[in-house]
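Hello, quick one for you while I still have it in my head. A protein chain has come my way and I'm curious about its shape. I'm sending you its amino acid sequence along with the backbone structure tokens. I'd be grateful if you could look everything over and explain what you see. Here's the protein in full, and shout if anything looks odd to you:
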Amino acid sequence: MPVSRAVLSWVQPRPANNVIIGAFDPAATRAGLAGFEGSALLLAGEFDRNSPPRAVAACAELFRRGAFVEQPGAGHCPWGDDPDRFVVTVASFLV
């Protein structure tokens, strides 16, 4: 079965002019996060190798009102590993 152009467009490298200016500028990103006025919850699973808790905690510190929670026993998809704990954590943050 031939691969459609739509599928290929997702896997092909994008030209440099097809990105948001400043999206990959670490200093601009840090400044933007620091300027965010709202609260931000960053939640990582204890065993997440894609987004390790230590790295996620460091990202939470970039927000003025950032909160970090490590969900025990969870991997990269904490909502699937322990949905009840995930819901309680997120709901308590939103209240």
